[in-house]
Amino acid sequence: MIGSVIGVLFDGVAYGSLLFIIAVGLSVTLGLMNFVNLAHGTFAMIGGYVCVLLMTRAGVPFLATLPIAFAAAALVGLVLEVTLYRRLYKASPLDQVLFSIGIVFMSIAVATYWFGASQQPVALPPYLRGQVHLPGLDLGVYRIFLIAVVAALTLALQYLLERTRFGSQVRASVDNATAAAGLGINVNRVFALTFALGSGLAGLGGALGIDVLGLDPTFPLKYIVYFLLVVSVGGSGTMKGPLIAALILGVFDVAGKYYLPQIGGFVIYALMVILLIVFPAGLYGRRA
Amino acid sequence: MKQVQSLLAALLGALALAATPCAHAQNTIKVGVIAAFSGPFADYGGQIEAGMKAYMKEHGDTVAGKKIELITRDTKGPAPEVAKRLAQELITRDKVQFLAGFGLTPNAMAVAPVVTEAKVPMVISNAATSSITTKSPYITRVSMTIPQIAEPLAQWALKNGIKRVYTVVADYGPGIDAETQFTKTFKAGGGQIVGSVRTPLQNPDFSAAVQRVKDAKPQAVFVFLPAGEQGVAFVKGFNERGLGDAGIKMIATGDITDDHVLAAMGDPTLGMITAFHYSSAHDSPENAAFLKAYAAANDAKAGAPNFMAAAGYDTMHVIYEVSKKLNGNIDGDQAMAAIKGMKWMSPRGPVEIDPATRDIDQTVYIRKVEKVNGKLANVEFDKIPNVKDPGK
Amino acid sequence: MATRPASVSIPRAPAVASTLPDDRWKPLEIAFWLLPVLAFFVFPNYRVLGSQILITGLFAVSLDLILGYAGIVSLGHAAFFGAGAYAAGLLAVHGWHEPITGLAVAAIVAAAVGYLASFLVVRGGDLTRLMVTLGIGLMLWEVANKAAFITGGVDGLSGVTIDPIFGVWRFDIGGRTAYVYALAVVFIVFVVLRRIVHSPFGLSLRGIREGGKRMPAIGAPVARRLRTIFTIAAAVAGIAGALIAQTTQFVGIDTLGFPRSAELLIMLVLGGAGRLYGGLVGAALFMIAQDYLSGIDPVYWQFWIGFFLVVIVLFAHGGILGGLDTLRTRLQRKR
Question: Does C155 sit within 8 Å of B37, measured CB to CB?
Fold first, then answer.
């Protein structure tokens, strides 16, 4: 039975890490620009479709598509930020919600038009398939890969935020954009680059997640709840909060479905509501 | 610009329609087709209509001297109040003589009282809950019901030495129906259900369910999931955790390996055993004619034909036969009397409309996913004839 | 408590009306309410659509109460619509077929659910409230699905037979009774809401929306006011849900679903929030357009809705009614 507990933990951590990598961009966007971006899933979807296109049309190997997915989503994010999102930073949350819903609808329509409404299959390379057989425990190879990638990315992000100049500019702008501007930091550029980074990470997560989450044009709407869940429970503006939140939610979701399948779907929503009542600003929220 | 023009045109048209009564109804038999043609269930309406068009292409669009006209209306998905409104409008405004389509159960259920009051024959082309035909004496069905497929599958499993089964179904009406019927038949035949799990409907990840199956070590796992991504996700999980290697068979109802999406599901489905009433690989002259007509009547965008297209084809057959028998003058009660007991050779095999329940009796086939001419297909290797809907 | 961004920001002009209210009926309002009466006679073949537009309009107005007046962004308002629908539906299925009392029961049930939910909703900032309302909506959907032996689950609740209204007017296939019934109920409820919104209570709500932190300084109990309006909005949504259950004699689980909440938000914004009539206008426009344009490629429909949303937010602030208002002020200034 220990085997099953570890198995559930492992699956939960894998699921949670995937949620984290997609949602971390949203957390920073929300914390930095205070912008409720329901269209965040769109960037993940872009990454997913880029990966599928490259693999099926151009025969690019799976691993090679990942950085391209990142770049493509980051580029789209950058363009959208500079042209559209920037105008709405001072708008009301309702306006932001509606604007992002509008972007989501348009992206779903475009994806349906170009790719059709059905699921996109992705053929993982053979070395990422199957299971690793340890005594008393079988672990999925792809899930190990996911956890490894996300762990590496998290460390890289941590380094970026805490040890580089850009990172300190981001942190300063999150804390107080006016003061940061007063110190000569080009806040607009910081916002743009951060948005691009967050979108790129979402795109990467989307490509990584095709095997676990599937890919079809309704992806942004289907999973936005999970991403918002991670960010609102974890608290926006930080990395640590969403990471912990994603892991908790992932583990509880898988555990709930394994041990108490009768209420499986309920667990994640109930947990979210409970956590939000107890921590209205999220677990590690920056705002009281 | 196009939108504005069409909006203006539609407004003018509506005003005109509102002002003048319809004058040319005498020479056409109108069939109102209510289904989802957009949104996540767009394939349902698309396939049903494609099958209908195939029949009309093959047999011409005139019956008993009258032209058959299809009027399609989009419910966009499960939207019972919209479906009911569309039915009311089709009957009072467009004066249709038949209603057909209905890819989803709640839409069919909501329309039932309307056809009872208006005495309009309603042919169900897909919705699969048993109780639908009991909601009105003017409803008949040409597709299938879930218990009708689950029961023979359970019988086949017992006959082939599978005595321990774990069931995994999606936690909603159709899934629970499938589980209930399969369990009932399986246990009655001496089988043992070693465990069961119902997965949430919005479920992206099956690792927990598949793990539970693996732990219980059954001989087979019976699966019912909504067609599309859930089926794909489960099959992936099944393969990833090596359940096949552990000797566990996967048996399911055929909508999981729907012919329309089978190609996209890919090689992981090879070897899957399913029970269903129609496979596009069915070897018969009627099916060959259907496939030919389907290709002729629809362009490539319609995709590969599946059981819903075959049901659409059979829907038109019923409508044509009734129209012929009544010489084009469609009276609700006479139409239903003509429909009861109707027998014919459908592209799927022999079928009959049960005179007592107005539901369909048909042969259920056991198939395996194999590669035929390089393409994936559901190849039939066993069958159970004359299956009535056990849900009644 | 409402949060404010750390950076200094000059808030944009709110997308809602900011004139002081008085309770006199303006001629434009009277003209507005004559339209559905006229439509009944001019478009006799569209009465079913008309009744559903009126019901959805009432539902949108209930969202306006919490969105336009109290400033709570909710993505789960369909929870109360569905609660009212199931209450009325179950009542009829289990033997009580009288429609008007059915409405009352539905309102009470929905209000109770709303009251309980309101305690969760008044805490936290905008994102938290968004997530909580979303979560409540999703959870209620799961409950309705699980309790399929009561609600009929995904297959829906059929057999909702409703007696003729006052024993005289049967619900006919042409939708005549449904239309008049819906119009009467919507009008009466609307008049009540109008009174509430123009009262000091209504004014205090606007105060909360614009500057929630300052309201306690003038003695207004913010949380209690928010809970009250949330409960009222839930009750009205429940009445709309009951109307749909009674006029269609069926309750689908989609009455509780997220797509319904999201579409409602779009309709309200299209019409213009904070003006009480915006919900009715938005619902009418949206549903009529959808009915006419649904023949055209549905992918286009979704794209253009998204596009219009973006355009409205960026340029046509305040929806249709807001635009009309700006037009009117510009014309008045020219004189």
Answer: no
Residues C121, C181: Cα–Cα separation, whole Å: 33
Domain holding B209, by residue range, is 147-276+365-387
Q: Does A113 touch chain C (CB under 8 A)?
A: yes
Tens place of pLDDT per residue across chain B (392 aa): 455 555 554 555 455 444 444 444 568 999 999 999 877 788 899 999 999 999 999 999 999 899 999 999 999 889 999 999 999 999 999 999 999 999 999 999 999 999 999 999 999 999 999 999 999 999 999 999 999 999 999 999 999 999 999 999 998 889 999 999 999 999 999 999 999 998 887 777 788 888 889 889 999 999 999 877 788 788 888 887 888 888 899 999 998 888 888 887 778 788 889 999 999 999 999 999 999 999 999 988 788 899 999 999 999 999 999 999 999 889 999 999 999 999 999 999 999 999 999 999 999 999 999 999 988 999 999 999 999 998 77
CATH number reported for the structural domain that contains residue B166 in this entry: 3.40.50.2300
Task: List the subunits that have 3+ CB pairs under 8 angstroms with A.
Answer: B, C
Cα–Cα dist C41/C55, whole Å: 19
Residue in A269, A274, A283, A286 to test binding to C, most C beta-carbons within 10 Å: A269
Amino acid (1-letter code) at residue B69: E
Same domain, B193 and B227: yes
* Assigned domain for B121 exists: yes
Whether the Cβ atoms of residue B257 and residue B272 lie closer than 8 Å to each other: yes
Say whether both B254 and B380 belong to one domain.
yes
Sequence-separated (6 or more) residues with CB below 8 Å from residue A285: A235, A236, A237, A241, A279
Q: Rounded to two decimals, what is the model's pTM? A: 0.86
Chain A hits for C139, Cβ within 8 Å: 266, 269-270, 273
Residue (of B202, B207, B203) closest to B240 by Cα position = B207
Contact A75, A46 (CB under 8 A): no
Are B248 and B381 part of one and the same domain?
yes
Q: Which of B17, B18, B81 sits opposite C52 (nearest CB)?
A: B81
- The length of chain A in residues reads 288
* Residue B91 shares a structural domain with residue B123: yes
**Which residues on chain C are in Cβ contact (under 8 Å) with A269?**
135, 138-139, 142
CB contact under 8 A, C156 and B80: yes
Chain C: give the shortest CA distance to residue A59, in Å: 29
Same domain, B134 and B269: no
The reply to whether B179 and B165 lie within a common domain is: yes
- Could you tell me the domains of chain C? 27-334 (1.10.3470)
Q: Is A138 on the interface with B (CB under 8 A)?
A: yes
> Nearest-CA neighbor of C84 among C256, C273, C216?
C256
Domain assignment present for B90:
yes
3-state secondary structure of C305: helix
Q: Give the contacts of C1 (CB within 8 A, at least 6 positions apart).
A: C125, C212, C213, C222
Q: Are residues B30 and B107 in the same domain?
A: yes
- CA B168 from chain centre, in angstroms, equals 21
User: A121: which chain B residues are within 8 Å (Cβ-Cβ)?
Assistant: 232, 264-266
Q: How far is C146 from chain B (nearest CA, A)?
A: 8
Distance of CA C44 to the CA centre of its chain: 26
Residue B130 resides in a domain: yes
